[in-house]
Each structure stands twice: as structure tokens, then as C-alpha cells.
# Entry
Amino acid sequence: MAQASRSVTVNVPPDKFFDIIVDYEKYPEFLPEVKKVKIDGGQGSIKEVTYTVDIKAKVINYTLKHTAEKPNKLTWTMIKGEMMKGNDGTWVLKPGAQPGSTEATYTIDLKLSSLVPGFIEKALAEQSLPGLLTNFKNRAEKLHPKKA
# Structure
């Protein structure tokens, strides 16, 4: 499994950022690689979500079970997926140093099929993180601009 973790400071409060990360069906609006999202089931804070994602070489589908612990944690584990054996991770949100900001940490454990070498697996996990975090940050700050 390739594990990667990265943090970003977002200029919105943790509860507002939490609302962005659990609004799964809106992901295609700001994550260019996510083509489609469908909530398959679940109750309350637990949702099963199927993603259709363009990984450049091909379009794949996978289903994650998300557990939301409002207001500061989201965890997921893979139920099924193409080209993947595992996709588990967390978002952990803490109040940032500046009032009204969030320190968001994203961690992923990615296990691709045995046909994919480990170093490629690790590169995929690590290289996608900066863009992913920037897209979430931009989305949150656009939807919840600071009052001047």
C-alpha cells in the first residue's frame, strides 16, 4: 500500500470546510478527474458512494464507504473498485492559526492491482495530493468568502 499525507490551510472555519468534503455529489464541479458521483446508500453519517474517475489511461469506477464525524473527521474505506485493491483514508480538520481558518490533513492508503508496480502506486498517491487539496481549498474559499 502506498500511503501519503498532506495538509493545507483553508480560510474558512472547519464546519464550513467539512460541509464541502461531505458534499460528494458536487465533486465533479471542482475535481476535474471526477466525472460522476452516485450515492448508492447508507444512513445518516455513513454513505456508500460510487465514483467514476478519469485516471488519464482509462476511466475507472470504485465505491467507498464514507463515515462522517462532524465537524472534524471523515474516514473512508473501499468496498469495491477497478484496478484497485484498497483505497482507505481520512480528512482531519482542526481550527487553523488564524481565526476562521482550518488546518485540513488528508491521508490516503492506496493499493492498486498487482499489475501496477509499487513505485507507481506511491507516485499516484503523492502526486495527486497537491492538486486535490488546492481544488478543495479553492472550492471552500469561493463558496465561503471572507467578509471584508
Summary: The beta strands are 2-10, 34-43, 46-54, 59-69, 73-81, 84-95, 102-112. The CA atoms of residues 117 and 123 lie 10 Å apart. The chain is about 25% helix and 50% strand.
